[in-house]
UniProtKB/TrEMBL annotation:
The lineage of its organism: Bacteria, Bacillati, Actinomycetota, Actinomycetes, Micromonosporales. GO terms for molecular function: beta-glucosidase activity. This is Beta-glucosidase. PANTHER family: GLYCOSYL HYDROLASE, LP05116P. GO terms for cellular component: cytosol. NCBIfam families: BGL. It is an enzyme of class 3 (hydrolase). Keywords: Carbohydrate metabolism, Cellulose degradation, Glycosidase, Hydrolase, Polysaccharide degradation.
Length: 441
């Protein structure tokens, strides 16, 4: 880790941390909440590495006041959380549950009282199971249901939430949940998953209109981006371009009025007249989630994919075996600037973080110097991008708490705060103190 002083960021730069509902809330049967696709998926044998579920997770639903105090102690200006769709509409349609909205009402009021801006994500992958039973995101009707959910939620919270994010990482939800089957709902469609992409984006556009009718707060979407690093033979450039179009452009080009790129699997017959205009509704913020670059080489003969993802050598690795590459964050931010020019809205880095095997020492302290080094490098990369003219106005660490990490269960820890899952004891790590001191500057 560099010992150089951290450079100054622009006045008003938003420092925050992020979480998601299914990963921390628990209380999956409280107050009428319906089942989500992750409740179903986690109960299928062999789906989750340690056989766990999010039934209790971090028990945030009952401990939100304690977690709000941790946010206040951290001194961040914003907290990005997600709202559980099945906690608001158990079947994904119909009247909103008062008890579900009451919980988020209390959370939002508590955040404001602590001086923390609420940043709410409407969909962080926990689709109501009833909608999945009707086809899920393969069904165009789900986009309309999502807009109704946005409307009833913003009707209650729109006067206090400071930034609305419609979807979290629609590429990951499409590719891992519907293309490869390693996330909920577990479909293996490969490139036949394109309708999931289009209907998520259509739902985003319809939700933007619903939010505009209820709130004056800015609206965003949070995409996962990964700069592509070619590796291999003479066909690798073609393979890298195909992967870049799929991962980095499929969910951004149409948002910014460019239509769909020439990406694998794009099926124009799914797109109806007027859809692209709905999808391209102006947004104030583009959320950028970044973890690592992707190594790509040409596929072996007979592969169903036009590329092969390969490890990148020469980088430190996280406990997820992801390469630690702060230069990748700077690279993608510059790429977004160069690719979209004046069409690019304000950017906030809505997720950036790393998993390590953190554990308390004999005195109960949790020292995580690798996470501090990771965050230091990535924050500096953001500063360099700002200096190069990229309109970045915020940085959110993933995550506030160690949590239930999707298919990895409780085996991967991303938090600034250590959670002892049997007791739910929270212990701020040394990275919590590092980030607190950075924010104070």
């Amino acid at each position: 880790m560099t010992t150089a002083p951290m450079p100054d960021f622009p006045a008003g730069f938003r420092w925050g941390v992020s979480t998601s509902a299914y990963q921390i809330e628990g209380a999956t049967t409280v107050d009428g909440r319906g089942p989500s696709i992750w409740d179903t998926f986690a109960r299928e044998p062999g789906r989750i590495v340690d056989g766990s579920t999010g039934d209790e997770a971090c028990d945030h639903h009952h401990r939100y006041a304690e977690d709000t105090a941790l946010l206040a102690g951290l001194g961040v200006s914003a907290y990005r959380f997600s709202i559980s769709w099945p906690r608001i509409q158990p079947t994904g349609a119909g009247p909103a549950l008062t008890a579900g909205l009451d919980f988020y009402d209390r959370l939002v009021d508590g955040l404001l009282a602590a001086g923390v801006d609420p940043v709410a994500t409407l969909f962080h992958w926990d689709l109501p199971q009833a909608l999945e039973d009707a086809g899920g995101w393969l069904n165009r009707d789900t986009a309309a249901r999502f807009a109704e959910y946005a409307d009833v939620t913003a009707a209650r919270l729109g006067d206090r939430v400071k930034l609305w994010i419609t979807l979290n990482e629609p590429f990951i939800h499409m590719s891992l949940g519907h293309g490869m089957g390693v996330h909920a709902p577990g479909r293996v469609l490969l490139f036949d998953a394109f309708p999931v992409a289009h209907h998520q984006l259509l739902g985003h556009g319809l939700a933007v209109a619903a939010l505009r009718a209820r709130t004056a707060s800015p609206v965003a979407i949070a995409n996962n981006y990964s700069p592509v690093r070619p590796a291999g033979d003479s066909d690798v450039d073609r393979a890298a371009a195909a992967y870049d179009a799929l991962h980095n452009r499929l969910f951004t080009d149409p948002l910014l009025g460019l239509g769909y790129p020439d990406a694998p699997g794009v099926d124009p017959t799914v797109v109806r007249d007027g859809d692209l205009d709905v999808i391209a509704a102006p947004i104030e913020v583009l959320g950028v989630n970044y973890y690592n670059p992707t190594g790509i080489r040409a596929p072996e003969e007979g592969s169903p994919l036009p590329f092969e993802i390969v490890p990148l050598d020469g980088y430190p690795r996280t406990a997820f075996d992801w390469p630690v590459a702060p230069d990748g964050l700077r690279e993608l931010l510059l790429q977004l600037r160069d690719r979209y020019g004046d069409a690019l809205p304000e950017i906030q880095v809505t997720e950036s973080g790393c998993a390590y095997d953190d554990a308390p020492d004999a005195q109960g302290r949790v020292d995580d110097p690798e996470r501090i080094a990771y965050l230091d490098g990535h924050v500096r990369a953001v500063h360099e991008a700002i200096g190069a003219g990229v309109p970045v106005t915020g940085y959110f660490v993933w995550s506030l708490l160690d949590n239930w990490e999707w298919a990895e269960g409780f085996t991967k820890r991303f938090g600034l705060v250590h959670v002892d899952y049997p007791t739910q004891r929270r212990t701020p790590k040394s990275s919590y103190a590092w980030f607190r001191d950075l924010v104070r500057r």
